[in-house]
Amino acid sequence: MVLIHEKITALLEQRRLKKRDLARALGVSPQTATDICKGRSAITLPHLRNLISYFEVRAEFWLDDDRLAPIEIDQLARRGAAEALMRTGMLDIEDPQHLMERVRAFVQQQRDSFLSSFPDLTAAEQRLLGLADPESGVVGRIGGSEMGAPQATATVVSADSTHLSSAQATAGAKSAEMEGQ
After folding, report:
1. pLDDT at 147
2. Predicted TM-score of the model (pTM)
3. Read out DSSP for the chain?
4. Which residues, at least 6 apart from 21, have a Cβ–Cβ distance to it below 8 Å?
5. Domains of the chain with CATH codes
6. Which one in 3, 33, 89, 122 has a CA-CA gap of 20 to 30 Å to 114?
């Protein structure tokens, strides 16, 4: 169990701040700041408000007794992202990592259809869904020929909205050429 005074001490050390800086931020004497850091003085609600403001870390971090250091979502600058996550219900999921693994697997099974339905995905969204090459960020599939030379696989949408591979499109075009001769 991580106590608030331990979090304060860790953040002071991490940010190379002095107890007198903390005293000024909390509006207390340097001795009281020292007592707070040692767990000898209670943290009041006004102290908590000042800690949130001073360290720019959300209240939930201070109340969470499992973590010593804040994570990105605890930063006040990321508050909008955290609130958006709350609205989606993702924070209510018991194992969000497991859910995302299932979503990624489904999206990858339906890759071509998914990408054509959502062509405006950002690079970050594509990486999250496992659609981008992690090193280059390129979206798409590259297959190898028998000789090992890379060969691009593309999807063509015909006038009647059917999806054709590049090989099918080429064969169809050659067939149409022969019929026209």
Report:
1. 37
2. 0.45
3. ---HHHHHHHHHHHTT--HHHHHHHHTS-HHHHHHHHTT-SPPPHHHHHHHHHHHTB-HHHHH-TT-SS--GGGBGGGHHHHHHHHHHTGGG-S-HHHHHHHHHHHHHHTHHHHHHH-TT--HHHHHHTT-B-TTT--BS-EEE-TTS-EEE--EEE-TTS-EEEHHHHHHHHHHHHHHH-
4. 12
5. 4-79 (1.10.260.40), 93-140 (no CATH), 151-180 (no CATH)
6. 89
